[in-house]
Amino acid sequence: CCGDEGSKVHSSDERRTSAVDVFVEYNGPVKDRSCTDVLWLLVFIAFCVALAYILAIAVLRGDPLRIVNGMDNYGNTCGVRNEDKVPDVPLSGKDMTNLSLLVLQDAVGYKRYCSDRCPSGYVLTPFRRCVLNNHPITIASQAINISSSFFEEAAEDLSVCWRELIYMCLIALGLTIVVLILMRFFTGLIVWLILFVISLACVGCTAYLWFLWYVKRRDYPKLPDDDPRKHSNEVSYWLYGAIAATVVTVIILLIILVMRKRIQLTAALFGEAGKALTAMPLLFFQPTWTLIFLCVVVLGWIAGMLYISTAGHPALERATGLVYLKKDSLLLVAPWFHLMALYWLTQFIVSCQYVVIAGSTATWYFTRNKSELDSPISTSLYYLVRYHLGSVALGSFLVALVKLIRAILNFLEKQLKTRFESCTFLLKMCQCCLCCFEKFLKFLNRNAYILVAIHGYSFCKAAREAFTLLTKNCLRVAAINSVGDFIIFMAKVGVIVGTGFAGYELIKLKVEVLHYIWVPLVVGGIFAFLISHCFLSVYEMTIDTLFLCFCEDCETNDGVTRPYFMSANLMAFVKNSERAIRADSKRKQGNDT
Q: Matching Pfam families, A to Z (predicted)?
C-alpha cells in the first residue's frame, strides 16, 4: 500500500548493518531517521484543501437558519429579512423578521408558513415549530413537551448541585490517583487478587447451581402431579445450567493455570508502566490536548454539516408549485466527504497521541540510566511532526475508510429495510464482519505506531513487523489484553462507583429540593469516567509499548554479550522462563532415553 522504502527519503535499514548493532549502541528511539510515507501526507493535505473548498462553497450557498428557524413553502427563512427572490415565485424574498415561528400544517411538514404566533389548535415545540395538537401529532407533541419539561428540571437540578459536581470531579481525580499508586506499587497483588475473586465467583456460582439442581431433584417426587412435565423440564434446565457453568469454570481455571507465567509478565509490565509514568508525569496531560483538538474538530464538523445540509439554490418545483433547495453534484456528495473528514481527522488526532506516548515510553525503556532522560515527550513530538505525519495519516485513513464503508452499509440497510429483507440480512452480516475487522485494524495500528516511534519505519513495514512480533508472542498478548484490559476496566468501574457513593452522600442533603436525584449522580459518573479514562488510557498505551519493547529486547539481546535493557523485575521473569524451558527440555530428553 505504501512500500517499505519508496515512500521514504532514505532507508533506515541502509544505515545499520544488523539489529544487534542497533541495540548495542541504542540509547532510545532511532535518532538518525527520515521522513516516512510522504505521499500519504500529501494526500492528507490535499484532502484537507478539498474539504476547505467544499466548506467554502457550502458557507457561500448555505444558511443554517434554514434549519434553525425553518423555511416556508416559498423559500423564505423565518425570522430574518429575505432579499433574494426565487424566479417565478412572487411570494419569495419577503421580510420575515417579525414572523419567527414555522407553522407545520400537516403531519410531515409538507405545507408550512411563517407566523408570529401559533394558531389555535397548535402547540409550540422547543425548536420553534408550531405543530397540530391532534392525532397523529398528539403523541409526538406530548413527548416533546415532556422531554422539554424534563430537560428544564434536570438543568435546575444541575444548577443546584454544581458545587457537589465539582467535588465529585475532584473525588474522581483523587480516586484515579489512588488507583495509579496501587498499580504502581501493588500490581502483582491486585492482578492475582482479581483472578482469585473471578475464580472464587465461578466456583461459587457453579456450586450454587448444582445445589439448586439437587434441591429441585430431591423435591421432585413430593410435588403435586398437576403438571409433571413442567417440573421435569425445570429440573433439566437447572442440570443444563449447572453443567454449562461447570464447563465455563473449568475452562477459566485451566486458562489461569496454563497462562500463570504470562500473567506474571502482565503484572510486571503494570509495575514498569507505573515507573515510566512516574518518571514522565506530563504524559498524563496528553489526553487533555487530544480532547481539546477532538472537541474543536467535532464542533467544526457540526457547523460545517449545518452549512452543507442547507446549501443550494432555492428553485421552484413545477409539479407542486413549492420551493425546494436544488443541489449540484458536488453538494450531493459533500455529506459523505464531510463524514469521511470527521473519521479521518479524529483518528489522525488520536493516532498522534499514540505515537507521542509510544516514543516517550520507548525512550524511557531503552535508556539504561533513567536519570539521564532528556525531554522524551518533546523529542517524541518533534519526531512525529518532523518525520512521521505521513505514517499517521495512512494508518488513520485505513480505519476511517472502514468506518465510512460501515456507515454506507448502514445507510443502505435503512433504505432497503422495508423492500428487500434478504439484502438487509446480508448487509448486517457485512457490517458485523467490518466491525470485527475495524477492531483488529485499530489494535494493529496501535502496535505499528509503536514501531514507527521506535525505529522510524514506514507504516506498512511497522505494521508487518508488529504483526510478526505479536504472532510470535500470541499467548503473552492474550494474557496482557485479557487480564490487563480487565484490570483497567475494573479500575474505571471502581472510580465511577466510588465517586457515585461519595456523590450520593454529598447530594442526599438536598434531596427535598431536587426533581431527580439521579441526574447529578449520572452526570458526576460521566465526569468520573472521562477523568479515569484519560489517565488509564495513557497507562494502557504505555503497557502496550513496554510489551513490544520487551519483545524487541528479548529478540535482539541475550543478557550476556548483549545486555538487556529491561529492569530487574522483567529480567527475573525472563530467567524464570528460561529455567522452565531448560527443565522441560531435560524432562523430555529423559523421557526419550
A: Choline_transpo
